């Protein structure tokens, strides 16, 4: 899968792409991150990409010309959806990550300063937000999304089961995980996990997953695919289903 990233700060991506799963995904040829510097598209003799907002107000706004040209360059490479990363967009989630992971190529436009000239919205496909807060630029949001999507691409994780069991995969939060030692500061690993009884462990994990989701994110349960046994368990815990 190819990610095209339109940014004023391509160097910001260096460290994130040089470690762990993203590094290995690049080495294995599973993903390619094509960093495109928006400044290269500026027709201004000083390579300016921002200007003062009409009507006054603080900060600078990214000018339409370099952004339109950069987006049109990406579009000339193929049928590539261009997502603007901005706080007014649909909030990113695992379902969107799964959909994106099935695409061959996708582009992200990272804003900066006070954001982009409103007319640029006519050139993008959709705006995606990382959450209800303001970032300095879209770069960190693009990195987060690239990371979440890459994990879902076949052959990227050495244990593909991880992506299936992780939180949000089925609109349930993941069950609790433990590792060595068995005892730590008076806290003991649940006995069932030491039993070697895989069927009972699977049952315990499923119930814990339901319990944690009920406690921390009951909103997710409405979208989760639940068995009759799950529903019975949740009813016993007082959930109206
Ligand atoms: C400082 S923000 C501009 C915020 C803008 N003035 C507003 O109030 O909506 C600069 C850039 O950061 C990015 N950004 C900020 N918050 C974001 C979020 N929650 N998700 C994704 N990108 C975000 C956008 O690309 C935006 O153009």
TrEMBL record:
Q: Which EC number(s) does the record attach to this protein?
A: 2.1.1.228
User: Record's family?
Assistant: Belongs to the RNA methyltransferase TrmD family.
Q: One Gene Ontology cellular component annotation?
A: cytosol
The record's top EC class is transferase
GO BP terms, alphabetized: tRNA N1-guanine methylation
Reaction equation(s) it catalyzes: guanosine(37) in tRNA + S-adenosyl-L-methionine = N(1)-methylguanosine(37) in tRNA + S-adenosyl-L-homocysteine + H(+)
CDD domains in the record: TrmD-like
The record's subcellular location field reads: Cytoplasm
Q: What is this protein called?
A: tRNA (guanine-N(1)-)-methyltransferase
SUPFAM superfamilies xrefs: alpha/beta knot (SSF75217)
Q: How does it assemble?
A: Homodimer.
Q: Which residues form the tRNA methyltransferase TRMD/TRM10-type domain?
A: 1-223
Specify which residues bind S-adenosyl-L-methionine according to the UniProt entry for this protein: 111, 130-135
What keywords tag this UniProt record? Answer: Cytoplasm, Methyltransferase, S-adenosyl-L-methionine, Transferase, tRNA processing
């Amino acid at each position: 899968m190819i990610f095209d990233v339109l940014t004023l700060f391509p160097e910001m991506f260096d460290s994130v792409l040089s470690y762990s799963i993203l590094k290995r995904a690049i080495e294995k040829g599973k993903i390619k991150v094509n960093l495109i510097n928006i400044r290269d598209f500026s027709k201004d003799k000083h390579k300016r990409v921002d200007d003062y907002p009409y009507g006054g107000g603080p900060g600078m706004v990214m000018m339409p010309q370099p952004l339109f040209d950069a987006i049109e360059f990406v579009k000339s490479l193929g049928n590539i959806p261009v997502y603007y990363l901005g706080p007014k967009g649909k909030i990113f989630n695992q379902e969107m990550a799964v959909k994106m992971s099935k695409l061959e190529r996708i582009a992200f436009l990272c804003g900066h300063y006070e954001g982009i000239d409103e007319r640029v919205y006519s050139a993008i496909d959709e705006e995606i937000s990382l959450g209800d807060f303001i970032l300095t630029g879209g770069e960190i949001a693009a990195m987060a999304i690239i990371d979440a999507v890459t994990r879902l691409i076949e052959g990227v994780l050495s244990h593909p089961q991880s992506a299936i069991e992780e939180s949000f995969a089925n609109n349930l939060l993941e069950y609790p995980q433990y590792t060595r030692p068995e005892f730590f500061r008076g806290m003991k690993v649940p006995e069932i996990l030491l039993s070697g009884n895989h069927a009972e462990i699977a049952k315990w994990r499923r119930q814990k997953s339901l319990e944690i989701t009920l406690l921390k994110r009951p909103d997710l349960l409405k979208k989760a695919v639940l068995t009759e046994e799950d529903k019975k368990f949740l009813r016993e815990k007082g959930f109206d289903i």
